[in-house]
Amino acid sequence: MLTHTPTPLLPTGTYTIDPSTSSVGFSVRHLGVATVKGRFEQFEGELTIHDDGHVTATGGVLAATVESGSGIRDRRLRDEFFQTADHPVIAFTADATPEPTKRGKLHLDATLTIRGTTRPVELELKIHEHDLRIEATGEISQEDFSLEWDASGKPASSSSPTA
């Protein structure tokens, strides 16, 4: 029987995210008209690549450090959307072996916890081997995390979601 051991995407070992050379950002389509972009100023994470190519990763974003370029919007994101007083951290975990995609990247299944709700998230990884850098992108649905706002710009419900 033939077996295939995947080549690790980077040298095996544990890597810590360097906030001075990294970023965590997002873009959201607003009312189908404009795209709002933002970032989080404080985050941390660790990635371990095992000999067999398996990846374990954990990370956290301090939700209160959201910056979108608008002070009013940022206060609303902190207070109403992310409810940072009760849910200060947006958490990420992965424990899987990345799979190659047709686009020459890697697919990684992970989980994301926002405002107490944990859901699976699919990430696409682009590896920059020359400088040991990983770019991860993915899409989430606000509704999956009970982060719905009505047409007036108010949270659709004031109740906290459960995990």
Protein topology:
Elements (H helix, E strand, L loop, with lengths): L12 E4 L7 E7 L3 E7 L2 E7 L5 E8 L3 E2 L3 H11 L7 E8 L2 E2 L5 E9 L2 E12 L4 E6 L25
Antiparallel strand pairs: 1-4, 2-3, 3-6, 4-5, 5-7, 7-9, 8-9, 9-10, 10-11
What structural class do helix, strand and pairing data support?
mainly beta
CATH domain class: Mainly Beta
CATH structural fold name = Lipocalin
Radius of gyration: 17 Å
**What is the count of distinct domains?**
1
Strands, total number: 11
SSE topology string = EEEEEEHEEEEE
Poorly predicted runs are 158-163
How confident overall, as mean pLDDT?
84
Write the CATH architecture name.
Beta Barrel
For the biggest sheet, the summary is:
8 strands, antiparallel
- Tell me the number of helical segments per DSSP (H or I, 4 or more residues long): 1
* Overall helicity: under 10%
Shape: globular
Euclidean distance between termini CA atoms: 43 Å
The CATH H-level homologous superfamily? Lipid/polyisoprenoid-binding, YceI-like
Beta fraction: 35-45%
Structural commentary:
- The chain is mainly beta and 163 residues long.
- It has a single domain, classed as Lipocalin (Beta Barrel), CATH 2.40.128.
- Helices cover 7% and strands 44% of the residues.
- The strands form two sheets. Strands 1, 4, 5, 7, 8, 9, 10 and 11 form an eight-stranded antiparallel beta sheet that branches. A three-stranded antiparallel beta sheet has the order 2-3-6, with helices on one face.
- The radius of gyration is 17 Å and the shape is globular.
- The C terminus is likely disordered.
